[in-house]
Amino acid sequence: MGGDYLAGPQGLLRSINARAVLDVIDREGPLGRPEITRATGLSKTTVAQALRELVAREVVDEAGTDTARRGPAATLYRVAPRCAFGLGVDIGHLRVRVAVVDAAGEVLARAEAPAPRRDAAALADAVTALASECAERAGTGLAAVGQAVIGVPAIVGRDGRGIRRAYGLPQGGQGLVEAIERGLPMPLLLENDVNLAAVAEQRFGACADVGDFVLLGVGVGLGAGIVLGGRLHRGFAGGAGEVGFLPHPATELGTEVLGARRIAEQARAAGIAGRPSPRELFESARDGDERALAVVDATARRIAHVAASIALVIEPELFVLGGAVGANADLLLGRVRHHLARDAAPLPITVIPSGVPEDAVLRGAAWLARHHARERAFAAATGAPPQDADPGGRPYDTDSAGRPRGSRKAAPGKEDTT
Amino acid sequence: MGGDYLAGPQGLLRSINARAVLDVIDREGPLGRPEITRATGLSKTTVAQALRELVAREVVDEAGTDTARRGPAATLYRVAPRCAFGLGVDIGHLRVRVAVVDAAGEVLARAEAPAPRRDAAALADAVTALASECAERAGTGLAAVGQAVIGVPAIVGRDGRGIRRAYGLPQGGQGLVEAIERGLPMPLLLENDVNLAAVAEQRFGACADVGDFVLLGVGVGLGAGIVLGGRLHRGFAGGAGEVGFLPHPATELGTEVLGARRIAEQARAAGIAGRPSPRELFESARDGDERALAVVDATARRIAHVAASIALVIEPELFVLGGAVGANADLLLGRVRHHLARDAAPLPITVIPSGVPEDAVLRGAAWLARHHARERAFAAATGAPPQDADPGGRPYDTDSAGRPRGSRKAAPGKEDTT
DNA sequence: ACCCTGAGTAGGAAAGTTTCCGACCTACTC
DNA sequence: GAGTAGGTCGGAAACTTTCCTACTCAGGGT
C-alpha cells in the first residue's frame, strides 16, 4: 500500500538501522565506522552491532584500513561484491549479448553470439549457453546468480513475463520466457530494450541525477524509455513509450514515424541508389553527400516532432538521443535542436546525446538484475522489507492515503466498510 | 518517498507506531482499540499508549462507543475533524469559488462570486474576501486553516507559486500569489486547474483505485491532468499535460487543437450563424441539429486524437472526460470511442465520463489543501516525517534506489552531513 | 417474566525483553 | 602526548507478555 509506515516490534528498529547502515556503505563506498556513525546519526555502539550482523551475513566486507588520520587504522567496510550476482541479457535483432555482474557492479564476464532467428527454442538455447559460459568464466556458477533481466525488442507486460508485441523475435516471442526459464535457475524478468537503455542512461550515463527524462531510442524502430521520478514508467500494460506510432502529418496512422525501414524509404525517395543501411547513409552524410544529408535532416525532423509531442504530455527534464541511429549525435543533435527551436512547443526542450555509447541495453539489464539480486540479499540480511522494491520491476503501489470517507456518525455498532 | 530508511533512536519507533495507528484510523473510519490492535499488529499496550498521545494532541477523537459485541462497550476513535482545515479556491475564467473543509473532508462552507478580470489585485481581493466569509461561516476563522490550494487556469511551477503561462488571468497572473498571500495567513499553493480536477476525480470520482489515469479537461482550452502511480505528474516545470498544443494534422503548430475558440471556429465553418456558445451548440446537437452534430463529432475526433497520442506516450489505465465541454458525455463519449476504435493506436484505450460533475476543480483544491493541512498536523502529532509528502504538492523527494544522495537522519544534536 | 450465572470482551497495570545511547576504557599511531 | 578506533557497561526508552478487573450479553432456571 501507498505509504503506511509499518508498525512493528523493536526488532523493526534494528532492521531499519541495519538497512540505514547498509545504504550508507552502499552509497559512499568503503567507509570507516566513524564515518558511518556520522552519516547515519546512530551511536557508535549501534553501528558496531549492525556491522557485526551485516558482516556475519556476508553482505558487508572489511576492505582494508584507512590510515589517513592519526591514531589506529580504521577498518573500512564495503558491500561485499560477492553477496549477489546479476545476469543481464540483451536479445537484439542480430545478436544476443550476456553479462554477469557482481554486487559492486563490476562486469565479471561478457559474451555474445549471433541471434538464432528460427524459433524461440533456439534463441533460448543460445541465451542459456551464453549465460552458462559467462557464469563459468565469472567463477560464480549459475546457481549463485540471483536474478536475470532480459532485454527484448518487444512490449513487455508489467509482470515482466508476458510479451505483448514483439518487433523482432521469432514466433513473436511466444514461449521464449518459459524456454529460457527452463535453462536458468534464477528468477527471470523480461524488459523492453529501450527501457533498459534508459536504465543504463540513468545509472551510467548523463542522467544520474535527473528525475524525469526520456531516452529516445532510434534504431530499427523508434521507442522511448521513460523515467519519471527516478523510476521507469511502463504504462498500464507495459505499452508506454511506444512513440513510434505517434501521429505524424506525413505518415499514415498505424505505421511507424521513424526507424530503419522509414529511413531506407526516405533514402529511396531522395534518389539514393542501392539499399544503403542507416550506418552507410550516415557515413555518406559525413562525407558531405547532399542527398544523404537530406535524409539525415528528415530523420532529425521526425525525432524533433516526436520529442515535442512527448514533451507536451510529460515535460521531462531532458531527452537523450540513443539507439543505433541516435548514436550519430554528431549529425543529428544539431539538426534536432534546430527543428525543435523552429516549430516546437511553447516549452524549451533539451536534447543531449547518450552517455552510454556501448552496450546500453546489456548494461541496463545487468544493472537491473544486480539491483534485484542485491535487494533480495539486503532484505534477507537486514530483515527489513525491500528498500525500493524496484526502480524497474513492478507496478507502483497505489496511493492509499486519505481516501474520502463520507462523514460517518458515531452510530454505535454499525461498521460499514466500503 | 523514494528511499532510505532513516536511522534513529528508539523514539523513532514510537513515531512510526503512532503514525501507523493514525493511518489505520484514518483509512478505516471510527475504530475500536481491539480492531486497531489487529490491524497494526501492535500490542494492546502500545496501541493504548499511542492513542493516549494522539488524543492528547487532538488529532484523534473519541467518537462514541461500539456495543455490537457483548462485553463492555469499546470506545471508537476517529480522526478529529477539527484537527485541520483546508481552504480550496477555484479561480475560473468567469467565477471565483472558495470552500473550507475540515479534516474529515466535510465541506463546512462554500462561496462564489464573479471573477474580477481587471487586475490581479482585484482578483486577489475577491479571493480573500470569499475566504474570510467562508472561514467565518465555517466557524473556524482563517487563522485555523492550515493550508490553501488555489486552482488557476495556468501552468504553475513546481514550487506551487510561479505562474509560467496564464490562459485567463489578469496581467498573466503576475503578482497574484503575492497579493493573495498578503490577505491570507496560511501557506498557499497554486495548482493548475485541470490537475486539481484530476485530484477530484481520483478522490471523489471514478478513479479511486486507478494508479495511472489522465483527465482530459475540455473547456476553454484543452489540458490533461496526469496521475501516475497515484500522484499528479506535473513535469519538470509544471508543463506536463499541455496537450492542447499537440500536433494535429489539420491545425497549425503552436495553436490549440481544441477549446472553446476552436469549437466556435468549427461552428462557423459548418455554417452555423450567430456565435453560439459551446453550451448552446451542444444543446442544438441534442435537438438533432445536423450541423451542430458535425461540430460535436469533429470535437470528439480531436479528443480521440489527443487521447491516442497521450496513450502512446504513457499508456494510462484510463481516460476521463472532464471540463465544461467534456461534461457533455452523452454526446461526446460514444463518438470519442468510435474514433478511437477506428483509427487509433495499437493499444486499447478506455474513456469514461467524469465522476465529479460539479465543482471538480474546487473540490480537488479543497482536498489537496485538507491533505496538506492534515499531513502537517499528523506529522506534528506523531513526530514522524510526513507520510506521503505529497500526492500533489511538491516535487518528488527525488530518486530512489542506489543513487548518490545525502542520507537523512533523525538523531538530535549532531551536525548534518549532506 | 425475572434473575442469576457463565463466557467473552475492553481496558489497565506490572514485569520482562529488546534495543539504543552515553560514558568510560584500552590500544594504537603520528 | 594527543587524538582516534574500537570495545564494554550501565541506564533509558519502548514494546510485549501476562495478569487482573470490570462490564455486558446469552441462556437457563425459578
UniProtKB/TrEMBL annotation, chains A, B:
Here the segments flagged for biased composition (Low complexity) are 378-395
Q: Where is this region: Disordered?
A: 378-418
The record's section on SUPFAM superfamilies has: Actin-like ATPase domain, Winged helix' DNA-binding domain
Q: Which InterPro entries match?
A: ATPase_NBD, ROK, WH-like_DNA-bd_sf, WH_DNA-bd_sf
Q: Which family does it belong to?
A: Belongs to the ROK (NagC/XylR) family.
Name of the protein this chain belongs to: ROK family protein
Q: Which organism is it from?
A: Microtetraspora fusca
